[in-house]
Amino acid sequence: MYRFRYEAVPESGGPWIRLLELEPRSSTDIHIQLKNVKLGEHPDFEALSYSWGTDLSKVPIWCNQRKFSIPRSLWVALNRLRQPHSGQSRLLWADAICINQDDMEEKTAQVQLMRQIYGAAKLVIVWLGEEAEGSHEAMQMVKNVGEGIWQFSSENQSMLTTFKRHQELVLARLPALTASTWATYWALLRRSWYSRVWIIQEVASAEAVLVVCGADEVSWRDFWNVGCHISQLGLHTYFPTQVSYLAELMVVGNAKESFRRNLRRPLIEMLFQFRNFQATDPRDKIFALYGLLHSDCRAGAIQPDYSWNPEDVFRKTTVSILEAECNLDILSGPVNGYADLTNSQSPSWVACWTMKDTPSPLTYQHINRDPQFQASASSQYNPRFLEDERIMEVDGFILDTITCVAQPAIPMQPPTGNFAWIKSFSSQCYFHKLFLDWERVVEARSKGIYFSGEDMVEVYWQTLLGGFTTFTDLNTNFGNPEADAKIFYRTLFERWDRKHRFYLYLHKTLHWLPGVDYLCCGVRLIFGFGNILLHSINYILGRRTITAPGPQFSEFNYPGIWRRIFRTEGGYVGLAPRFADVGDKIAILKGGRVAYALRPVSTRWRLLGDAYVHGVMRGEAFKEERCGHMLLE
Q1: Which of 109, 249, 463, 475 is the least crowded, having the fewest Cβ atoms under 10 Å away?
Q2: Does any domain span residue 603?
Q3: What is the mean pLDDT of residues 562-580?
Q4: What is the spatial distance between Cα 519 and Cα 521, in angstroms, rounded to a whole number?
Q5: Cα separation of 412 and 423, whole Å?
Q6: Phi and psi of 212, rounded to 5°?
Q7: Helix H or strand E segment including 17
Q8: Would strands 46-49 and 90-93 be described as parallel, antiparallel, or unpaired?
Q9: What is the pLDDT of residue 54?
Q10: Long-range contact list for 167-175, CB < 8 A, 24+ apart?
């Protein structure tokens, strides 16, 4: 029997796509028929959203009576979606089959239709995978709570007057925090589907979405609502190691809501917002977002073209955005200078969106908010490139030289398994010593006054936040939003610092004791178990009320992750990329809203990344007459 070979998709009178007709279950073998259809004729089909996964093995199926190999994850999905033997065929679209993955020209053309394909499907099926790790229990919980939320919302017209009652009813349906169901729920959110960059477009474009895991099905409405309420009620704060997984669900849901409301967002904003999502093909980190762009927001975007290699795609995208925006915001992305200081293959200033372990951007911490920083005042960047766009010419000046750096803040992986508490304890010890080192570099407990007139403790806590002290999504603003937000963050810091100072005192007093770090962190962990213990007692006594611990300072100091605190020769204090070191320079560049860490390389410079420098982020140090030409390689 011959193996299946693709026939070209028609080019005239289109656009044309392929659909697969999944035949009913007649044996263990899966049989499909591929057919070409005009997208404009509104075919009645469903689209599949799934993860290819890490298992690269292929499984054979029968396509048009010929053998055809597909990824195992897709085979499992199709096997689940097959109708019974007496049922009817099912018309589906799945990328690994409906696009010839070996034909780059076809792939380029079909990828540009993805938004239309998922928008035209009568249903988008989100396939999370087979039943595992208690997924049935988790899906049943989501379905139960989601239906309750929807029923209550539809019966009550005024949510403002019934919000408290609404919370009580949601809490009544949610399991106790000590219940094993929560572990199954977080396991469900850890599945690989949530990390794919393509799901943003697939879910956002869809009219109707169904989430399927094993034999269980839940509507996207319920799945999304449950996640929102867990977040709104603050219940995720009881599971700090799982917060990132809930955040991915929130990002996908928010993207769908923005798309539904027809909000127009430029490419640079979406690249920052979805930077943590991954793709099997590095080029898809850019191409997967193209379909979400409105025609009037495609400045800086390049059309999908799989004839380019990933390095060309990232470089062309960076150059295109720089030319369209006339500012340096893109240099707050995961530039090549972050990871490999000896890499000569790609310029240091090119944003490489597949790079992991990079800090959050200082220019796009708050999407849809007015810019907080303007280090170069109102200046603009004039795009200029040399040597086939490998050298970037900028105008600016060196502000100062780094003379002291602390340890970089490296996040620990969320602990899992039987000995998770040991990993958590180790993480606590690491951050305990880290903050001692950061205080030392800033001289936070000294009696000195910063050049801005602030005491060093004030400088320290604002630097921990990366200077983001004027925005808060919490209801704390009564008069002056900026002033009230600053009071809010200062209060959180003082609450956190009171605990930290106790451990600092313990550390200094018992510095002679072997293992003093472990002693301090052991005491910290014992106190940290208090909320869970209190809830367990309430649950045993039949009290279902759950009180979230409220916002914590540690929730907002994420700008310091993957960065290190530094001090300069002139006394400036700030945050720089983790590879910045003594002797590197802090620069102010025209068109840049933040400062930048540079390393001299002969007569040129290598960009290490963006930097926060306390007291200069609103143009206080910018001098037009000091600016000169600088070449970034």
Answers
A1: 475
A2: no
A3: 96
A4: 6
A5: 9
A6: -125, 130
A7: strand 16-22
A8: parallel
A9: 74
A10: 167/233, 170/145, 170/229, 170/233, 171/233, 171/544, 171/545, 171/546, 172/544, 173/144, 173/145, 173/148, 174/141, 174/145, 174/230, 174/235, 175/141
Any domain includes 113? yes
Buried b (16+ CB within 10 A) or exposed e, 75-113: bbbbebbbeeeeeeebbbbbbbbbbbeeeeebbbbbbbb
Q: pLDDT band for position 522 (50/70/90)?
A: low
E strand or H helix at 218: strand 216-219
Task: Read off the tokens for 38.
Answer: 């005009």
| Per-residue confidence (pLDDT) for residue 160, from 0 to 100 | 44
Q: Hey, how many other C-beta atoms are within 10 angstroms of the C-beta on 517?
A: 17
Instruction: With residue 228 as reference, give the H or E element that holds it.
Output: helix 220-232
For 543, counting Cβ atoms within 10 Å of its Cβ (0-12 exposed, 13-18 middle, 19+ buried), the class is exposed
403 closest CA partner among 584, 579, 564, 576 = 584
Predicted confidence at residue 513, as pLDDT, reads: 64
H helix or E strand, kind and range, residue 171 = helix 159-173
Torsion (CA) 27, 29, 35, 40 in degrees, nearest 10:
80
> Which pLDDT score is estimated for 477?
44
Among 12-21, 29-38, 480-489, which is the least confidently predicted range? 480-489
Among the residue ranges 181-195, 337-351, 487-501, the one predicted with the least confidence is 337-351
Mean pLDDT of 281-288: 94
Instruction: Look at residue 549 and tell me if it is in a domain.
Output: yes
Interatomic CA distance for residues 604 and 444, integer angstroms: 35
From 521, 539, 555, the end of a domain falls on 555
Report the range of poorest mean pLDDT among 119-123, 473-477, 587-591: 473-477
Better pLDDT: 7 or 507:
7
Which residue range forms the structural domain that includes residue 94? 16-121
Calpha distance 507→432 (Å, rounded): 10
Domain for residue 409, yes or no? no
**Residue found by looking up tokens 């993957």 in the block:** 562
- How many residues does the structure list for the chain? 633
Number of structural domains found in the chain: 2
366-382: b (≥16 Cβ within 10 Å) or e = eeeeeebbebbeebebe
pLDDT band at 476 (very low <50, low <70, confident <90, very high): very low
Which amino acid is it at 558? Y
Cα-based angle 398, 400, 406 (whole degrees, multiple of 5): 130
Question: Which bin fits 163, alpha (ψ -120 to 50), beta or left (φ > 0)?
Answer: alpha
At residue 610, the pLDDT reads 96
Identify the weakest region by mean pLDDT among 432-446, 541-555, 585-599.
541-555
With H, G, I as helix, E, B as strand and everything else as coil, classify residue 1. Answer: coil
Cα separation, 382 vs 384, whole angstroms: 6
Question: Domain boundary residue among 507, 539, 555?
Answer: 555
